[in-house]
Amino acid sequence: MDRGTAAALVTGAARFLDDLPLRGALHVKVLRSIHAHARILSIDAGPALRRPGVVAVYTGADLRVLCAPLPFPELGVEDLAGPARHALEPDEATFAGEPLAAVVAEGKREARDALDAIDVAFESLPPVTDPETAAASGSARARLSLAGNIAFRCHIEAGDPGSAFQKADRVVRAGMRLPRTIPAPIETRGVAAAYAPEDDTLTVWTTASAPHALREALSRILRRKEGSIRVIAPPARGGGPLGLSPSPEEALVAALALAHAPRPVRWMETRRENLLASGHARGQCGEGEAAFRSDGRLLAVRWRGFADLGAHLTVEGALAPFATAHLICGAYNVPAVEVSIAGVYTNKVPLTGGVAAGRAEAAFFIERLVDMGAAELELDPVELRRVNLPRSFPHVAATGLSFDSIECAAALDRLLEVANHGRLRAEVEARRTRGELVGIGLAAYIDLAGASASSPSLAPGWEAASVAVSAGASVEVEAGAPLFPGEGDALARIAVKELGVSTDRATVRGGDTARIPQGAGGTGSAPDADGAGAVRIAARKLASKLRRIAAAFLRVPEEYVDRGAESFSAGERWVTIEEVCRRAYTDPELPDGMEPGLVATALHARQGALFPFGAHLAVVSVDPETGEPRLERHVAVDDAGVAIHGPWMGAWAEGAIARAIGEALLEEAVHDEEGQLLSGTFLDYALPRARAIPPLVCSRMETPTRFHPLGARGGRESPGVGALPAIVNAAVDALRSLGVRHLDPPLRPERIWRILREQRGRP
User: Fold this and answer.
1) By C-alpha distance, which of 267, 272, 87 is closest to 190?
2) R_g over Cα of the chain
3) Torsion angles phi and psi, residue 312, rounded to 5
């Protein structure tokens, strides 16, 4: 995505997937379950079929003929159990909003109206909505075919936590909960598909973020060769972190495009569908404890948790608790650890990951324990963190992660300097003496940037890219993943720097399986760095080839050739880049063994994970009458390694922090006991508005990592990892004088107001 596309987003001229011109396209609308758990006794589609403009109505039984179930995630986890997922569920609805039937019509209105005419007979079944309750033996099952609701367990134990807790001078314990949140992207999900019988090609356009993984999944679902399927994921224009697992709607629309060829088929999600059935994030709870020496040294950490997976297992849903388990020690040097997280099925929409999935949860849990330890020991939270942050590298955490250069101590020092912490603390203390409820919160964090559609565990990820230079010296860069704002500019700069040409020669595209044979795609903070590494490798291959051709033209050994601005020279002789490129395609006397043309495809596979890191500070005040928390100031120091995306890093940081502010203060996907989503509109699900976001101070460090050829760490989502716990820590600090020891987000005024009244002895 280049500057022109970014400008189009700001001015409203950008085209979204729903703007895709598909002449004669049929429109699909999906009938969704009104129950969180129920048997499907019958579906009567007759009245809907008689509606004007309706072409067809499909149920789960019909789809069994057209497509296989969605592939079950292959995660390399022992004893992984779970139900098959279908494009349309034929027998049993397992969450409110699950797709049961689909209408194909000439227009959106006709399809939507026909949904009301479909009659579904249900037998209601008891739902399970709380993951801890669902994990208990004897609990109702989230699906009748399940032997139990636990899909998997992630357990890590290292050191001697039992002995550490016995020797500790102080142990802090707390139950904690990060509720489910809804990603709520600007652009809701959409899928369009068209089948061309003349070349037997099915083309699928999607808002998902892993087109090659989707192509492989559709090959299995539709029982077609991968080569006959083309998936295009246009540049991300406000979409959320969706798409590591194929969605039912993607399978549905692709199957219907084959059934109704040659007419294209399209589906676009409504906002209500997005909030209800697109997928949620977070949803972890548990009990943690930390053992401290009297000087603040952390001796051990324990965490026993539960992850609310929803009704079906997705790659994203499994990835999050594994990331939480591995990062439960956060940025700190903890000698012993014991962590166990159960992934549990419930009758809710499956997880879709969300921003910094699993990593933000780990940072919240450990940072709350660290702050509680400082309060219990009556130590300065800054000094307690300094005592426990590692300062020599490489550092191997007790959970097994190896950090090459995580300078969190330096980030904390920079944060205190940027925030003018000494003066800020004095100001806060002065306000407290006047009776104000105000506090300062800190957080040091490590993010794990590394998962992709092809490496959903914590294994190092990869990405592919292709670079082509035309005979006229135009440069085309193809990335495996769809492009986010700013990524196109960065990839162009990397390619032209290696090739020695001007940036205006470069065009960058991404997310098209027909243009590049393979790509990892994915979400989170790594694909941008991995894609940059692949572009650099491919461009270097072509730069070397161009240099060899120039040497042959100038009739000198290659080592005597100097590369200038769009030219090559040897002494007084020189040749333009255009001439060298033309010869690469037309000269019959290329150097021995060299094939004509200038095209290179490269795969960048990391030998280790990427770890962005940083430190955040927040100042929060609380209105003593209403309980409303107000984030007055937020200062961030983030390190994503070498900043390959330059000016976009600040914008990404602000966006990630804004997202964290929403989760800290406002956002929660609330379900009732029957599994119905109560926060299914923007009247009930509160997103932060401009007035909730103070002026943000975002500073950046650049500590290179040896696990990336450019020294980049990723980091698109990472600032949100540090922002969430810093804000909650500040709110607890503001209320500590009233005896408040811990708060779970969201910090809604009504909850704090009740705490204030209880502390003051009011009913």
Assistant:
1) 267
2) 27
3) -135, 150
Strands 170-181 and 599-605: what pairing? unpaired
Residue that is last in its domain, among 247, 268, 289: 268
Cα–Cα distance between 102 and 251 in angstroms, integer? 12
* Other Cβ atoms within 10 Å of 147 Cβ, number: 7
Alpha-carbon distance values, 112 to 21, 30, 677 (Å): 21, 8, 21
> What does the pLDDT read at residue 455?
43
Phi and psi dihedrals of 212, rounded to 5? -70, -35
Q: 197: cis peptide before it, omega within 30°?
A: no
The whole-number pLDDT of residue 723 equals: 97
Query: Domain check: are 197 and 65 in the same one?
Result: yes
Distance from C-alpha of 51 to C-alpha of 29, rounded to nearest angstrom: 14
What value does the mean pLDDT take over residues 558-565?
92
DSSP tag of 17? G
Q: Which residue carries 């006229």 as its tokens?
A: 472
What's the CA gap between 129 and 512, in Å, rounded? 39
Q: How far apart are CA 387 and CA 459, in angstroms?
A: 30
Distances from the Cα of 449 to the Cα of 419, 612, 655, 720, angstroms: 27, 7, 17, 13
**CB-based contacts of 4, cutoff 8 Å, min separation 6:** none
For the chain, helix (H) and strand (E) counts, in that order, are 20, 29
Q: Residues 437, 467: one domain?
A: no
Angle at CA of residue 512, ends 196 and 581, nearest 5°:
110
Q: What is the DSSP letter of 373?
A: H
The domain boundary, picked from 214, 235, 268, lies at 268
Domain match, 514 and 372 both: no
Question: Using CA of residue 109, residue 112, residue 116, residue 118, what is the dihedral sign?
Answer: positive
Angle between helices 749-759 and 719-735 (to 10 degrees): 30
**Beta strand segments in 640-683, E:** none
Burial 661-694 (b: 16+ CB within 10 A, else e): bbbbbbbbbebeeebbbebbeeeebbebeeebee
Q: What's the one-letter identity of residue 329?
A: C
CA distance 156 to 160: 12
Q: What are the pLDDT digits (tens) for 680-731?
A: 999 999 999 988 899 999 999 999 998 888 888 888 889 999 999 999 999 9
Structural domain that includes position 411: 280-452+608-759
Residue 293 resides in a domain? yes
Coil vs helix vs strand at 138:
coil
| Same structural domain, 106 and 202 | yes
For tokens 């399940």, what's the residue? Answer: 146
> Do 325 and 341 meet the contact criterion of CB atoms below 8 Å apart?
yes
**How far apart, in whole angstroms, are the C-alpha atoms of residue 700 and residue 716?**
13
End-to-end CA distance of the chain: give it in Å, rounded. 56
Residue 290 near residue 171, CB atoms below 8 Å = yes
User: Alpha-carbon distance 28 to 107, whole Å?
Assistant: 8
User: Which residue in 545, 442, 542, 527 sits closest to 490, CA to CA?
Assistant: 527
Cα 725 to Cα 368: distance, rounded to the nearest angstrom? 7
- 573-576: strand order across its sheet: 562-564, 567-570, 573-576
Place of tokens 């000087």: 295
Q: Are residues 447 and 594 in the same domain?
A: no
Least confident of 343-347, 572-576, 629-633: 572-576
Name the pTM for this structure. 0.94
CA 111/CA 103 separation, integer angstroms: 6
Q: Catalogue the E-assigned strands of 447-500.
A: 462-469, 475-479
d(CA 667, CA 181): 6
The residue count of the chain comes to 763
What pLDDT is recorded for position 618? Answer: 98
Cis peptide before 99 (omega within 30 of 0): no
Give the type of residue at 419: A
Q: Residue 81 pLDDT > 90, yes or no?
A: no
